[in-house]
Amino acid sequence: MLYFCTPKRIIPRKVIMKRRVTYLLSFYAVTVAIFVVAKVAFMLSQAEAHPFTVGDVGSVVWHGLSLDLSTALYFLIVPFLVTMVSVWVRVPRWLLYIYYGIVALAFALAFVADASLYPFWQFKLDASCLQYLQTPTEAMASVTTGYLVLRAVLVVVVASGVFAGNWWVDRANGANGADGTNGTNGATGANGATGIARTSGSRLWETAFYLLVIPLMVIGIRGGLSESTTNIGQVYYSPQQFLNHAAVNPVFSFLSSLDKSGDYLMEYNYCSDADCQELTDGFFYTDSTQPDTLLTTLRPNIVIILMESCGAQFTDVGGHPEITPRLNRLAREGVSFTQCYANSWRTDKGVVSALSGYPAFPVTSVMKIPEKSHKLPSIASSLAAEGYTNSFLYGGDINFTNMRSYVMGTGYDALRWKSDYTAAEQRSAQWGVRDDLMFASLLNDIQHEPEGSRWMKTLLTLSSHEPWDVPTQQLSDPVYNAFNYLDRCVDQFVDSLRQMPQWDSLLVVILPDHGYRYRGIDETTRLYNHIPMLWVGGAVRQPKTVDRLCNQSDLAATLLGQMGIEHAQFRFSRDVASRGYKCPMAWHTFNNGMTLYDSLGFTAYDLDAERIVVHEGGDADARLRVARALLQLTSHDLMAK
Asked: Structure pTM?
């Protein structure tokens, strides 16, 4: 019998090397393309709140490309190493499929989370979102079930699309196996067995080629050979922050911030200690020198109401007297600090500033670091030394952002929160117990205080927060309506107090934890950080307007100064009523940025872009030097605690 043998076709190794290189370049190009498509999708998802033109899309893509190119190199590392190893040994194809799946899921989560969180936060995705995984119930309280389901579906769709793109690259250009046969362009022909020309020399040359490429990849990842490495600020190009944010790669933003989460201690250094001291000299004058007398008694009982997000934009100051008419009336009846500004943009930071007189930081959340927060002074601890009892009420989860640790560690001896209420009350609002129920609970506590006792009670509200689920419907705008409901709750509480004997010796301090971004009001506008601070009650001597620039962190020194209580330990809290208060200014920090207000205007500075993003009045450079010095001074103080 005669047999015919098909000759073995030998494929040169340089052909296989070409296929491997083509595979790597294709994977890299597809990754960059995915980032570009994600940018466009992000802009479209925010179009209602942030209108843009077709030209803006092109500019965003172009200016963001350098960051996309660098970020894509991170994800090329694994395919690159697998390809280099496959020169010598066969690498199972399924290992790369697992990698494709991980990358697809990571990208999908980043893109969807970025687009979903931006309307709430107004900055790009970063590691601060991880803190909410510790308390998922609180994290989901701002949104509906339908909202979450839609996002889950989007994650699946986007992940499938990203995986399909990587799979196509692998199938079309697969050349990462040791024998070159793991792709459609592999070495197996239809008409017989095939092989690869194998020589140790050719493998060494191919390996040497890959080794030479590694330094180029490193240079690409770091963004060149200059001292400045790849960073978010390199893509900023527009005076419109939305366009700058749209140009930022959310995957890079998240990865680069992993070491800067809320419990990350960050020290800032801009100048020598001597220069820092000179620039900030006089700004934190804490003494109470012949203060203006605002109260009728040195030992009033005190209620502090911290209103969630209720910035001055929702009062007559913001041109909306119909939203909070009762707060506007109370401002005329008591002591109104008309030029008060929030220290930060988040509750965990604003609470610390208000109750401990301590500044807020662009990244670090002091509340989340017990070893630091427990060393802070506080109004509660100062009053406890004077025989006061202190209680804290919050209708939400007191463990959120480590609030329990801070409250109990700074002088509060009684705590009431969501778990202390009935199941029905806990479900009265998405975030927990709604405000009218909490005010009723606070009123009941006051009624049962023994006559002649000294006490302070603090209530942190929560209903004026997404998803704005309040039991009244007075205004058509859901956000405005929620603040109108808060306004009604505060007014009814104060009116009830007026009918009680405790009113005559009572001081009620009303101020927000921070402002709220809405309808064009954001960090670039002065009104965003402007907040009302009101003192009302029978202990208030007479109606008065205090128009000195100040921060909510100045409450501690101002209040204790009125009570004749020593407060030198509040290093960064100033007595606004003191005759020694001669350097009025307000300082605010936001996510990797800060704003400084003085009598001539204000300046906002972006720490990522390392540039001034908005400036009104005065010398911008001089104001920036002071702002940097303040950040250096306060961060050094925190590090030393």
From this structure: 0.74
